[in-house]
Structure formats: structure tokens, C-alpha cells
Amino acid sequence: MPIRFFLKQWLMPPGLFLVLLLAAWWLRNRRPRLAALCFTVGLGGLWLMSLPLVVQQGARALESEVALPVAQLSSLASRADAIVVLGAGRERGDPAWAGADQPSPLALERMRFAAQLAKASGLPLLTSGGLHYGTPPSEAQLMAERLQADFAVPVRWQEGESRTTWENAQFTASMLQPLGIRRVVVVTQAWHMQRSRWSFERAGFEVVPAPVGFLGRDHARPFAGLLPESRAIWQNGQLLNEAVGLVGYRLFY
Known about the structure:
By secondary structure, this protein is α/β, with parallel strands linked by helices. The protein has helices at residues 2-11, 15-27, 32-49, 52-62, 105-121, 139-151, 165-176, 193-202, 230-252, and strands at 82-86, 90-94, 100-103, 125-128, 157-159, 183-189, 206-212.
């Protein structure tokens, strides 16, 4: 897992663009034209990744599922049998919480929406997410504990073995389908919903998408989003990873 993670970080932007800049410096005397190409692509790629406008346009291509209408939340029980909220990483050893791991900001956004859905519909909750490089507790357990403590919402099931979206779906199916549960509300980021829905439908579920955290909207950035922002680099990295994952899932699963 660490080796695969290391390779992924350098083969995917922005790591790839940093490699190109290093290659440009290395080749500057031996192959000046190739060095110039590497420099142009590397610097240009980093600049594009830093633009909120690129985030907005890229997200629009991935965010194909619309938000659940607020007026329909109370009627979810007629369309589904359970709510599944997918893990999104963790913050390690936060001193503010006595050194305990906490769900990431993305996970908290999903949990907040899942709690609202559960309270409005009365549907039971399942949290899905495995270990962080083999370190307990699982993401599913972290989310379950915080849902109870912070939102007063109990979690009926914890799926704590999965490491990928595909495994989220497969392991959730092995827990819920023997109980006769085949209709689920899936809560995840809007840009992650295409791959999530595809995975859960392949696992035999009827899916009600419940996307949150839409990025493909006009966020009123100054100068139409053409000024670089550090946050945009991370967001564009997430979108690129999602686009590659979406293609890869269709090829390999």
C-alpha cells in the first residue's frame, strides 16, 4: 500500500508536474528543447491546477447527480431501506481531541447530511470505511462515534474493512443484502457520486443518490476564478483522481 501510494503521488498531478520541472532543470544543458517542453508543461499544469475556474469546470463534468430536494427528505423511507455514508479519510492524532483520530472535513460534511436524512426519514444508518494504513479504529467506527456524540444519531451497522469505493459497495452488500436490504441512500461528495452509484448498482443495490459538497457552482471568486488559490490545487487533484478512478473502474471491474 505505501509503495502504491508513493507511485500514485508522483504519477498524478500535481506530483507529475513537479517531476517535469525537475526534469527540465536536469535536462537544461543536455536537451534544451526537451527541457523547455518539460518546463512549459510542468509550470502550465501547476498554474491550471491552481485556478478555481478549472475546479468549477472540471466538477461540472463529474457532478451528474442532482441534490435531493429538501421537501422530499421525509419521504425517503418509501424509496429506500437504509442510508449508507461513505468514509473520506481521517485527521490523525488531533491534540484538541486528546490525540484521538477524527473524521476528515469531507467525512464530516457527509456525516452532517446523513444525520439530517436519518432524522427526517427515520431510516437506519450504515457507515462504511476501513483502516487508515492498517491503524485502528476504522473510519466506519470513527464516523459512528461522532454521529452519535455530535448529531445524536445512532448507527446500526459499521462496515470497517473497505479501502476503496468498490469495496465500500461489495462489503456493504454482504452485510445488508442478507437482511433483505437492497434499496439504499448513498451519501458522498457530488463529484464522487458517479463512481459510488456505479459501484453500488454493480453490487446489486437500487441507489438513491444523496450528493453533498458541490464544486461545480459559481462560488463568486474574484476575477471569475482566474486568480490562483492554494485550495484549488488540492480540489483539482481530487477531481483528477476521481476522473481516473471512474475510467479505471469501468475497465477493471
